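It is worth pausing here to work through a concrete case rather than discussing structure prediction in the abstract. The textbook approach is simple: state the sequence, then state the predicted structure, then interpret. We follow exactly that order.
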Amino acid sequence: MVYAAILAGGSGTRMGNPNKPKQFWMMGDRPVIVHTIEKFCLVDEFQKIIVLSPATWLQQTQDIVSRYLGTFQHRIDIVAGGAERNDTIMNAVGHIEKTYGMDDDTIIVTHDAVRPFVDYRIIVENIAAAREYGACDTVIPATDTIVHSVDSSMIASIPNRAEYYQGQTPQSFNAKRLKKLFLELTDDEKAILTDACKVFVLKGEKVAMVRGSESNIKLTYTSDMRIARAMMEQEEEGHHA
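Step two, the predicted structure:
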């Protein structure tokens, strides 16, 4: 079975509005999170789409799904996220195991709720790569020069940009393998986790790369919302042309 996990557990404080997480901001006539969930609803391979919401926003998330995604509501589960990103992912894994059971072929596709422009190709290629390799990350080539600093003050090195990529999401995994490796991590290893792919890297496991997209942006700052709204208007104009 294949499951999607939409990671909507963040508070969005960098958007400047701590009272409303950024995934619930309006983009056009619908919240950001709705645009994101809908992309996964259109992929038939998903058994369920699990939306991991801040615990204090569970009811609002349910209301939003009911209002905007009623047609797909039977395919969507809403679950509380965790304190950290990887805790949220493990909550999704735990929900799958408890509710539906996991076997050796269970795949989980994890995606940021605030990346609403992910496309169908990226999602299906993630599913295929996770099945073949056990883990994959969505990436694009680094376009700016990468500068390495140890002390945040002086440059230590300037590596070859051709060998570096910028990570996006989805990140997709064999669910049983992800759980096993995560539980084997030491506290020190957990402290340096920046994303779930690093669980595999720390344990010496291979992680395949799926080609991302320049348009698959993450909405982190207020300026990103302005860009996103402009992108959405261009998309709508293209559909009406």
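Step three, interpretation. The longest helix spans residues 222-240. The chain has a mean pLDDT of 91.
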